[in-house]
Amino acid sequence: MQNKKVLLITGATRGIGLTTAIRFAKEGYVLAINGIDEHAGKEAIAQLESQGYEASFFLADVTKEEQVNKMVKAVAEKYGRIDVLVNNAGGLLGRYPVEEMNTAFWNKVLDLNLHNPFYCTRAVTPYMKNTGGSIINITSIAAYNGGGPGIAAYAVAKAGILAFTRSTAKELMPLNIRVNAVSPGVIDTEFHSQTNKELMESWKQGIPAKRFGTAEEVANVIYFLTSEQASYLVGEVIQINGGQDFR
User: Fold this and answer.
1) What CATH number did the domain enclosing 18 receive?
2) Structural domain of 60
3) Looking at the domain assignment, is residue 198 inside a domain?
């Protein structure tokens, strides 16, 4: 088993995921980054290695439990340990009013945003329970306010993450595994690239900070929650939204 700590982060070839990986690398972590696009994975690894960071890409669709189990086993076999899991993979996949939303779409959104963190958490627990570790889930302001039109499935999935975080935090803390979550508001990443610009501007005006957050700001909170400075935080959800009303 190597001495350096190991981060496994899903959906980490761009945006908040890649930025978070870099944040951990700066603290000396070895990176196991996941994604579903092999080309994007190779580009991310090249970027990380060019900065002197040790990283490997693990191709897996985290909505498929068999692929998750295989990925986690491969990471553990390669590095001998997994210290931090960040369940970052997720997304809207589209906007559909409830009356127009088919069941297949509903299930696909829940697979991506709710079921995949369960698969990943279950898979890493055997590797963390003897040495301790930290798991960070990513929820959303939509879990609290329902989000905008057409994202009921996404909001429901992210609300489920709140309960999943609090439940697993109580279950896993006796094993020295801390579980917490981060709830971003509107963050300036590709996630919102297809959102109407006028709608985006209206959101900005409703944020006391009068701007959108950055991936770096989210990454800092994620890292904090895994650090010794947050050792008494268990089952917490940290809001990072510039003061935006999330009730």
Assistant:
1) 3.40.50.720
2) 6-236
3) yes
Q: Is residue 26 part of a domain?
A: yes
Question: Does residue 245 lie within any of the structural domains?
Answer: no
Q: Quick check: is 246 in a domain?
A: no
At 179-224, the pLDDT tens digits run 999 999 888 776 655 566 666 776 787 788 888 889 999 999 999 9
Tokens of 81: 């340990």
- Whole-prediction pTM: 0.94
Tokens of residue 243, six digits: 């003061």
Is 154 annotated in the active site?
Answer: yes
> Of residues 29, 53, 119, 154, which has the active-site annotation?
154
Which pLDDT tens digit goes with each residue over 40-60? 999 999 999 999 999 999 999
CB 21 within 8 A of CB 7: yes
Nearest by Cα to 35 from 66, 67, 5: 67
